[in-house]
Amino acid sequence: MLSTFVHLLLQHAAQRPDAPAMREKEYGIWHSYSWAAMASLVEQIACGLHAAGLQRGEHMVVVGANRPRLYASMLAVQALGAVPVPLYQDAAAAECVFPINNAEVRFALVEDQEQVDKLLEIRAQCPQLGQIYFDEPRGLRNYAEPGLASLASLMESGQAFAAAHPEFFKAEVAQLVPGDVAAMFFTSGTTGLPKGVVHTHASLLDRALAGATFDKLTASEEVLAYLPPAWIGQNIFSYAQWLACGYVVNCPESAATVMIDLKEVGPSYYFAPPRVFEGLLTSVMIRMEDAGLLKRKMFQVFMNVAKRVGPLRMDGKRVALLDGLLYALGNLCVYGPLRNNLGMSRVRVAYTAGEAIGPDLFLFYRSIGINLKQLYGSTETAVFVCLQPDNQVRADTVGIPISGVEIKVADNGEILVKSPGLLKGYYKNPSATAEVLSADGWYHTSDAGFIDASGHLKIIDRVKDVGRIAGGANDGAMFAPKYVENKLKFFPHIKEAVAYGDGRARVCVMLNIDFDAVGNWAERRNLPYAGYTDLAQKSEVYQLILECVEQVNADLSADALLAGSQVSRFLVLHKELDADDGELTRTNKVRRGFIAEKYQVLVDALYGDKAEQYIETAVKFEDGRSGSVSATLRISDAKTFAPLKVAA
């Protein structure tokens, strides 16, 4: 039976008060919060917020990394019948203006001085923002802004209020019902202003429980919460399922210590977008390239065994006796130490989502004994729509619909979803809500795909992005930019790709190299470089990237549907695409339309058969300063292949 987040917290606190609920690392030491301590913390903050004037139904912004006191604050807001609105901690100040004004936010809780400065910077644009509370006081001693106070002082006032009104908190919680609004998540705003996705306790907890049941999650799981809490994926794994299952959530000390903390925690349940798994594999391959000859040979030999035997073992299939013995030896010498080095020795279930993951990348993790699977969902569906069952894991699908979910494919190929986890609506945007939610309860995902013969869902691209080649030898052929981009990003030397071709006679792409991977590759070849811009334009690097592009073209030529999407020309950008420059969303999705406008001169050069093009681009640095980066970019042609004939 569904409940609310606050009821679940109090239930855990009553049934196992001393069991650990969360851990936080500070100054290299892990500190535990029991369920009873979390419940007490929530009551103090809730009473303090009530005394400060937070009303039922109001929104309160929460900005920061994963911290127990920030999670407790979200629970406290919910306990009062108000609505927490988590925002991305790495968002620029200007990006916070619309959500704060759209949600009419009067109260905000932030992690530290950086976030305080951000909100003070935009306060004139958000006149209703009266109270700003901060968790970490470092650097804020001499601030004298009206309405600025510490979370500690709020808790003190809450403790006093609770002592004077001992029944208040219980009375507030008793009013909560599953249909109450529990949280609002703002979309990344890929094509315009972000939209506030409204979810109830029922919608979030229903999907959290469905996912937990699917993978048999228990209170004994360990989870590392290191992705932004404003992203619903992290919120589901470290908040909704945390309260639904009662497992332990561990908060790393900082973004810089995540890998160290991952090894110390040894999570049993792990989630990361493909870029994290790509980064981990890239670091492994860099270390192996720098290793001695004996280690490299041993790694190569046993990885060949792993690729042949590992996936079969993961799928519960029988393997030959000799292969089994070789794999056991490889596990002792290579796979076990490698899993330990990645911090995944105890991982029972690992998920990736958000973008397509490369088959080779997927195969690598499953080969070494990590149960990596894919899921499909979105902010609007409370994440869990399709999951991959154990023993039915494939790189080219995103799994089967889980309990409560219905899926159908529209005539234009769009995936439609019906689920108890669907959004209540977009906040103050009924027209946008009507566009995605039909009168009979179907959610329009905007994703194009189909259900294969085994009942698994396969995603091709966004419906609006699937286009057609116009003119030339491939006139009328389907063009799926995201599919092409993902195939390019499967290579460790390519970090980002932006493909164009809809309505044009050929496909052209702009690329970012992976600076660490290509830098290591260059150093081993004694190729000097003075930074990203210099390295990106080296002729040797272009040859390296050309080989990757032509391998993708060869693969595409074997796909009857997408053979016309082969890349004819490409260039390597002079700077890395960055969310601070508006080129990526906060969830690291490319804003293809924005990039086309910003780099129109490069698009024109690609399609104008130029061999090079000069460009100067304004950039924002991490400290807030602005500057520019300029370079003359090389443009290279790539070999394309005739579509392969499929035997009848």
Instruction: Kindly provide the name of the CATH class of the domain at 5-193.
Output: Alpha Beta
Mean pLDDT: 92
Q: Could you state the CATH homologous superfamily of the domain at 5-193?
A: ANL, N-terminal domain
Helix share bin: 25-40%
H/I helix tally: 21
Distance between the termini: 54 Å
Kindly name the structural category.
Answer: alpha/beta
Strand order of the largest sheet: 4-3-5-6-7
CATH architecture of the domain at 5-193: 3-Layer(aba) Sandwich
**Portion in strands:** 15-25%
| Shape call | globular
Question: Which radius of gyration do the C-alpha atoms yield?
Answer: 26 Å
Task: Kindly describe this structure.
By secondary structure, this protein is an alpha/beta fold. Among the domains are: 5-193, 3-Layer(aba) Sandwich (Rossmann fold); 466-637, GMP Synthetase, Chain A, domain 3 (2-Layer Sandwich). The protein is built from 21 helices and 28 strands. The strands form 7 sheets. A 5-stranded parallel sheet has the order 4-3-5-6-7, with helices on both faces. Helix 12 crosses helix 13 (321-342). It starts with a helix and ends in an 11-residue tail after the last strand. The mean pLDDT is 92.
Briefly summarize what is shown.
By secondary structure, this protein is of the alpha/beta class. Among the domains are: 5-193, 3-Layer(aba) Sandwich (Rossmann fold), CATH 3.40.50; 466-637, 2-Layer Sandwich (GMP Synthetase, Chain A, domain 3). The protein has 21 helices and 28 strands.
